[in-house]
Amino acid sequence: MMKLQAGPRSVILLAFVLAGAGLSACAPLMLGGAVVTGMSASDRRTTGAQLEDERIESRGGARLRENLGERVHINITSYNRQVLLTGEVPNEQDKQLAEQVVSRIENVRAIINELTVLGNSTLTQRSSDALVTGRVKANLIDARDISSSAFKVVTERGAVFLLGRVTAREADRATDITRRTNGVQKVVRLFEIITEEELLEMQSQPASGGQASPTPSGRPM
Question: Which CB contacts under 8 angstroms, 24+ apart, belong to 40-46?
Fold first, then answer.
């Protein structure tokens, strides 16, 4: 019998197909499609910051469900305590309420509210977004001149949000890769820009439990 072997690119695309269909082998926490994942040793956040981000996402998801119920579709993504809200809400009041709910979570440093006042996206739309995210991640892995693990990718209705602690060179390279990816309609950069010297220092030191204070640069491209 012939055996099929899947490379990193195939595994990533499969993972996001499963996420779009609401399936996962490790059953991550989801709120309208947002996935809470495990820590990564290659992540440029400290281990403490990674744990704090997962706590914010978990607690934020629970509180949004308590306050807004099933009438909204909200994805919550935290990176270095900067929280990105994406998805759909039925009115402006719910958009502001969602931001207020998340802002009351301990240690949230900033909120980027990208919620849109629209009807909830369909399963087909969410599956399409999951595929786009998978393609972007796969293309970042294929690019050997940047570290794909430094980037977090969120897609909502074809708009791709890029987060991470990266140099200006890495930010521009990832933006170009993402923009060229099939299905991407817009790229929004929410990076913490670091210098090449800071990157070298970061790579030479083991991960610690402290937290960084990022300075994001968020601009649609």
Answer: 40/149, 41/207, 42/147, 42/149, 43/149, 43/150, 43/207, 44/149, 44/150, 44/164, 44/165, 44/166, 44/202, 45/79, 45/80, 45/165, 45/212, 46/207, 46/208, 46/209, 46/210, 46/211, 46/212
